[in-house]
Task: structure prediction
Amino acid sequence: MAETEPVTTETILAGRGLTKRFGGLVAVNDVDVDVLRGEILGLIGPNGAGKSTLFRLIAGIMPPTSGTVTFLGRSITRRSAHDVCVAGVASTHQIVRPFREMSVLENVMVGAFFGRRPRPHGVPAAREAAMEALELCALEGRAGSAAHALNMSGQKRLEIARALATRPQVLLLDEVLAGLNPTETDRTLDLVRAIRARGVTIVMVEHNLRAVRGLCSRIVVLVEGRKIVEGDPDAVLNDERVVTAYLGTAHA
Amino acid sequence: MDRRLIAVAVLVAAAVVFPFAAPHAEYAIDVLFLIFLYGAMATAWNYIGGFAGQVSFGHAAFLGIGAYATMILIQSNISLWIAVPVSALLPGLYSLLIGIPAFRLRGPYFSIATIGIGEATRLIALNLNGLTGGASGLTLAHAPPKVDLYFAALLLCAASVGIAAWIKGSRFGYALAAVRQDPDAAETLGVATTVTKTQALFVSACVLGVAGSIYALYYQFISPDSVFGFSTAISFVIMPIIGGVGTIAGPLIGAVIYTFVREQLTALLANFSNADLLAFGLLLIAIVVFEPGGILGLIRRLRNRTRAKPPEPVVDG
Result:
């Protein structure tokens, strides 16, 4: 896969001091994160580390208790989820949420109709834009199917196709590999590379460390709501603190 | 040409010709008038209750405000050309008072709020004696001929169905369907869910307002219990459910059945008031239990059974 857009040093999306409290629990604690234009940034950490919560703060699904999110130099802190999507930051849901009464194509058309401007005018244009996203996700053969007739791998790719149809500049992928077999995983990794090759910056929360190592240009590690390490995948995954967080001290 | 379109064209032509062919069939014209008016209102209720899935028990408020606005303006010698647009717009604005706060909340809060708003509106109308005439209502000495109002109701019904058809095939329709099926997913795809629901409610309320205007002119009498009554509000929920919620034809089919059944029951059980409500309550329970898709859902199911289509296999894309 030719990587047409090189990773730059330009920060496209930045979180500063992001904190989220749920009563006494601090799910995300004072996290700074920079996403560079054109990169695939991996966000890893043990269960309950606050990865998905951090995603939700960025995507506007929930507001941070404190801290800011900046996209292309402008604050998107506390903007609603639809505003963030229209601004150019799209996200997928960890648990797939297709519109159950719509076909696969119609699901993706919603994204095409309402995402970042310029939007397609009229149903035919939206259908065309949606088909393009479906082709990239290898779902064009299932365009007319009911969304719930797809298997897990298909539904995961439908989540991606829908988000992609909103014409994002940054795509937040929340555990798109979870529940996939090795063949499906490889296909999805190829898909993520293809999306990146189209100039979309990607941030992915992932549990599959082998996949993260092969795919990501940088990795951020969250443990108990705090960022403990970030940097080059090999260096990060060999970092003693990361090994300890994942495996416990006895194995370190 | 689509067979359904031909059927619709024939029905509309028959409705247009009928008053000329049978100018003395006053009862039939009364019933047809009601069918058109209820068809228009049930269809408009369906924009928000069906397409967006936000069930409203308060639509009588919009009907009533439209009816009272027309009555009061006409009594003050203001032209119909001003009275009708005002009667459309006032309920629209009133709907924003309900929609903007209630739609910020997820779940059944909107439906619950509409019950309260509907009753509150009735009580306000009952007690604003100076403006509304209180419980004795308002009467109108002069009104346009009934045949004109018959055509006005037919036109409103056609417009209401036209709006429904336009919504269904438009970007707005996709937004409403997305809001109904999964508001959180809709939000993350860029759909401004609160604004979308508020817009649908606004359009719906405007159509109800015009219906109220036609209603007031036709009967030349309105009272809080007739236009703001809870049974009126419930009828807007019953009709789409009978025919098929979220469809174009469903509310119309429901309006036809509702009007006929109510006329028959009222005649049959003249000294058993509100027997129609009991009958519709039982019908509603039967539909929700046995065929939530209403009559159109039943037809679809029977058609699928005769075709015996195998279920779609679950395979990888």
About this structure: The first strand of chain A starts at residue 11 and ends at 22. Chain A has nine helices and ten strands. The CA atoms of residues 25 and 242 of chain A lie 22 Å apart.
